[in-house]
Task: structure prediction
Amino acid sequence: MPEFFDIHSHLHFPDYDKDREEVIARMLERGVWTISVGVNLETSKKEIEIAEKHKNVYTAIGLHPHDGPDDVSTQTFNEEGFAKLVVHPKVVAIGECGLDYGRSKNDPNIPSDTITEADKIRQKKDFEKQIDFAAKYDKPMMLHVRNAHEDVLDILAAKKKIYGEKLRGNAHFFTGTTEIEQKYLNLGFSVSFTGVITFVKAYDEAVKYAPLDMIMSETDAPFVAPIPHRGERNEPSYVEQVVEKMAQIKGISTEEMKKNLVNNALKIFRISL
Ligand SMILES: [Zn+2]
Result:
């Protein structure tokens, strides 16, 4: 049994090219399992290769909203390509996908209000295609949402009428209000939190609000390392700090929190050991 489940990391990133095997060995030592997430077709293939070699690594495959084409008028989710990957037993979710109005696709320094309508339309089309794809293959979704909860929830609510229980998953790196959180929960989506909760109090309410069976732990490694690693490269082993902080915020023991988080990950992503 895993001790910890980091349900969102990116082990394919070049940040790990020099020591990927050591990073995964450290995870095994500490009983840390992860879902390592692809952001386009190529990196999804790479994630499957990594997952194949390690019993504690699973993967999610999909197209990140910022991994579309430079020409925003073309639609890019390659269903044929992903259909070849989704049948792999280590693929447990579709994503990360969703909408990101938080920064310009090509330049993170360009503020969100300069995101064009054409880019939004392209993002929505790719997101809807991935919802249909997830329903077709009966997989949970790994959602990436930034400054776009309203549009994401509208799309999910409309698709829920078609797919019912089949449409489900997790809102990764959740940073919304409890009101928004409730809307995801109503649609059958859990929420997960990163190491940001170890150095910012802004999401304590959202952590407290999440039901114990609909909350998950993640690192989003190599990004946002928790205290005491803040500013360093992150890695899935550091999920331990996220879990400790979650337990503290929820006012329960770390042991109980750990057990819940592992059970939730296994249940929501239908992982049988
Ligand atoms: Zn991610």
